[in-house]
Amino acid sequence: MPRQGKRYRMAMGKVEKEREYTPEEALDLIKEVSSCGFDETVEVAVALNIKPKEKGERIRGTVILPRGLGRKIRVLVFAAGDEVEKAREKGADWVGGKELAEKIEQGWREFDAVVSTPQMMKVVARLGRILGPQHLMPSPKIGTVTEQPSRVVGELKKGKIEYRNDATGVIHAPLGKVSFSREALLENFETLLKAIEKDKPASVKGRYLKTLFLSSTMGPGLKINLQKVTGLS
Fold first, then answer.
1. Closest by alpha carbon to 57, among 49, 69, 66?
2. CA-CA-CA-CA torsion sign (49, 221, 176, 91)
3. Which of 103, 129, 145, 155 is 20 to 30 A from 181 in CA distance terms?
4. CB 142 within 8 A of CB 62
5. Is beta strand 41-48 parallel, antiparallel or unpaired with respect to 209-216?
6. Where are the alpha helices (DSSP H) in the chain?
7. Whether this model's pTM surpasses 0.70
8. 196 burial via Cβ count (<10 Å: 0-12, 13-18, 19+)
9. Among candidates 93, 129, 98, 89, which has minimal Cα distance to 110?
C-alpha cells in the first residue's frame, strides 16, 4: 500500500488541480503517469443532469466500442437446440441450461456477461437475486435476452458494453487500456458519449452533461472541459 500511495502522489504532482483538460491532453497525461505493474483500464465518469429516482430519466443502454476493451470478455449463454452450437461458434465460453444455473447458485462466477434466449429465462429467473446486484441479469432492454444469442456473443466479444447511471446520476464506464493509442481511446470515448447523448430524456432541461472526468484504474481523475468535447448538449 505505501508504494501505491507514493505512485499516486507522484501522479498527482503532475496534475493541475484547477485545470480543465481537453480529452486529448487528459489521455496523454493518463498514459504518462501510469506506473503500475499492470495495464490499467482507462475509465470515464459522466455526471448527468437527471433525476435518477424518476423512471423516465434513468439512463441505461449498450454500445459497441469500436476499438474494444483490450481484455477477454467471458460470455455465458443460456440456450438450447441449434442456438447452442451457433453461440459456441461465435466464441461463447459456456453454453447450457439448468446445469449452469445450479453452478451459479453454488457460487460459480467465472463470467463477465450473461445472454439468454427467451425460452431459457424460466431457468435464469431464479438467479435474479445473484445476477441482479452484479448487473449481469439478462434483459430485453439491453439486448441480452434474444432469439439470436450468437449475434450478441459476437458483439460482446468485439467490445459491447452496458452503461447505466448510478443513484447520483453518474455513469461510470471503461474505455480500454492505458496501452491503447490515444487515438483508439479517443474513438471509444467519442462513441460512448454519442450513445449517452442519444439517450437524453426529453424531460431534461438545460445542459445534459454536468461534469466529465477521465482516469485510469489507480490514477487521479482529470476534469474535462466540456466546451472542448464536440457534439454535447
1. 49
2. negative
3. 155
4. yes
5. antiparallel
6. 2-13, 23-33, 82-89, 98-105, 121-124, 128-131, 149-158, 182-198
7. yes
8. buried
9. 93
Question: Cell numbers of 82, please?
Answer: 441449434
Write out pLDDT tens, residues 175-228: 999 999 999 999 999 999 999 999 999 999 889 999 999 999 988 899 999 988
* pLDDT, tens digit (0-9, with 9 covering 90-100), for 68-82: 999 899 999 999 999
Q: State which amino acid sits at residue 118.
A: P
Task: State the cell numbers at 207.
Answer: 445542459
- Locate 101 and state its grid cell: 444455473
Q: Output DSSP code: residue 120.
A: G
Structure-block grid coordinates of residue 143:
439486448
The amino acid present at 38, given as its one-letter code, is F
